[in-house]
Design goal:
Elements (H helix, E strand, L loop, with lengths): L4 H25 L6 E3 L6 E3 H17 L5 E3 L3 E3 L6 E9 L1 H5 L6 E8 L2 E9 L4 E6 L3 E4 L2 E2 L12 E4 L13 H10 L2 E4 L3 H9 L5 E4 L4 H13 L3 E3 L13 E4 L4 H10 L8
Parallel strand pairs: 3-5, 11-12, 11-13
Antiparallel strand pairs: 1-2, 3-4, 5-6, 6-7, 7-8, 8-9, 9-10, 13-15, 14-15
Helix pairs in contact: 1-2, 5-6
The structure holds D-MYO-inositol-1-phosphate and calcium ion (2 copies).
One calcium ion binds next to strand 5.
Amino acid sequence: MPHSPAKLQTLLDIATEAALAGGAVLQSYWGKLEEIQEKGRPGDLVTEADKASEVAVLEVLQRHLPDHPILAEESGQLGEVTSEYLWAIDPLDGTTNYAHQYPFCSVSVGLLIDGVPQVGAIFDPFHQDLFRAAKGLGATRNRRPISVSKTAELGKSLLVTGFAYDRRETPDNNYAEFCRLTHLTQGVRRGGSASIDLAYIACGRLDGYWERGLSPWDMAAGVILVEEAGGQVTAYDESPFVINSGRILATNGQIHQALSQELLQTKPLAEYS
Ligand code: IPD
Ligand code: CA
Ligand code: CA
């Protein structure tokens, strides 16, 4: 059953409170990290800031919504998925940036309802950018409405992408797509925070984004932001987006088909695998 605007607004306000709480923790640890560990794959880092931010986010969600299950990057699945709700939380999206004191990272708090992103809050504490959206309620940056760009040609677009931590051992590591699209556009950025990449599509700072190897917590909040800002989110081949697929194509809508076609025509660069 569709949720009422009032219910979605309440959930959005809770998501926002959680994202702001996590952001305050990220600010408090900035430049003071004592613990930077690799989680398994080379380059896949976790710090005490990731963990402390997650504690702060969880505290807010569990206080307001004790029955809601949560999928959190550092804690895994919390609670049984018995209802239509699942929160997907990234307490620090952009850990590599954060560990190097490159101030481009965020807290991402998204809510899936029946498996579909419907509520999202993304907070970048170092630029004081708060992005919010909920199904049917529009998208905002710092409480003002936002919309996607009007760029209509791939050749005039500015794109963004990323590279998953399995890139050294996976031939399908996105290097070939990066080369091809760099050649065809005004540029391809590598932001290092999937949720901010999506938020920047939503507010028109970037025109298109694709990536593989992502987790639900990287995308849940950003997907609803892009959709509510008038953009389009699908799989690479323009079929419906699936949160567990790890793959996303998100654009202003106008360059969607052209970007999809380029992605589908790219062959892997085997020599970099
Ligand atoms: C990573 C960032 C990065 C993306 C990686 C993600 P993390 O998340 O979103 O932009 O390219 O695939 O894993 O590890 O910083 O939370
Ligand atoms: Ca992430
Ligand atoms: Ca993270």
